[in-house]
Amino acid sequence: MTLQQKNANRQVRTATAPGAGMAGLGYDNKNKQKQGCSICDAAVPPAALNHPLATMPLSSISGHTALSSPDGIEISAGLQAEHAWTSPKYFYDALGSKLFEAICELPEYYPTRTEAGIFEQHGAAIARAVGPGCTLIDLGAGNCAKAASLFPLLQPNQYVALDISYDFLRASLQRLQQRFPQIEMLALGCDFSGEFDLPGSVRSDRRLFFYPGSSIGNFAPDQAVAFLKLLRANAMPGSALLIGVDLVKDKAVLDAAYDDALGVTAAFNLNLLRHLNMLLGADFDIRQWQHRGFFNAEKSRVEMHLEARVDLDVTWPGGQRRFARGERIHTENSYKYTPAAFSALLEQAGFQSAQVWTDPEQWYAVLHARSCNT
Known about the structure:
With about 375 residues, the chain is of the alpha/beta class. About 30% of the residues lie in helices and about 25% in strands. The protein has helices at about 70-80, 95-105, 110-130, 145-155, 165-180, 220-235, 250-255, 265-280, 340-350; strands spanning about 15, 25, 40-45, 135-140, 160-165, 185-190, 205-210, 240-245, 290-295, 300-310, 310-315, 320-325, 330-335, 350-360, 365-370. The strands form four sheets. The chain has an eight-stranded mixed sheet with strand order 3-6-5-4-7-8-15-14, with helices on both faces. The protein has a three-stranded antiparallel sheet with strand order 9-10-13. α2 packs antiparallel against α8 (about 265-280) and α3 (about 110-130) runs parallel beside α4. Residues about 1-65 have low confidence and may be disordered.
């Protein structure tokens, strides 16, 4: 995702565990509305099982109300730009999140299994670098599976899951709490691509920002530095970063990973149009579009686009655009780095003493770095 316009304040809904002093669901006006991130405390006490976590969906805009919202303004401006674009954060409605889970199971999509292999092979060394008892802050948690696989190694005192896809996160954390009732858990519905401050319910001691899956590649390098600086601004004494980074490799491997034979990545990309129809009240016809995914070696990034199959018009309340056959909407970038280049970005952002672990083919890297203010 990219650093775009900050989200407006949105109403948030919380839920407490049965027996925790409140019954059912309700609106909690005590929760602060953070700039760029509607953060909602949905705390899960360690003993709470089957807890109905709830926050308002981050993007609850629809139809005519969308145009005046920050999301609506951003989407409309992107579609009407000379070279049309959308932020990849709009991939992740409930269906998009499930499709991305399916992508991670594809033979062509190496990042997930390669990263998992690094944690399996070097888990003990990573755990020594991190130390036990951290506050594990999972950025873009999704189904929480990656963080959960590290619980036995890292032994966190608190697990904080952040994700833009509210419904998906809520269901994931419900299941996870049942497996690990001894760990305090907190769900935050948040678009963390803008400015954000973590609420007081997130423990301040030994924060470990966990950003796996090479999602940092969705930022251009200068944006990546800005984002990492936001994390450092939320760091406390003893804080650190544990991050997955995709490395430069053969173009054929990268092209296949982002344009698989089964067409799951194509469905993931095309589902974005369905989501935009819901958010903006647009009239995209998915059948008129096709997926394009390829590695741009000059810019060291994979690009994903949606290409018009025919001349067509798209309208939405307050806007319209004519697309010629072959014209594209740029939906995602995924930058690829060398370990040295990414370590340099960390230093620019105020992180130091980076340790790097890679797979045998050096396709992927996991880095641990400490905040300079600790």
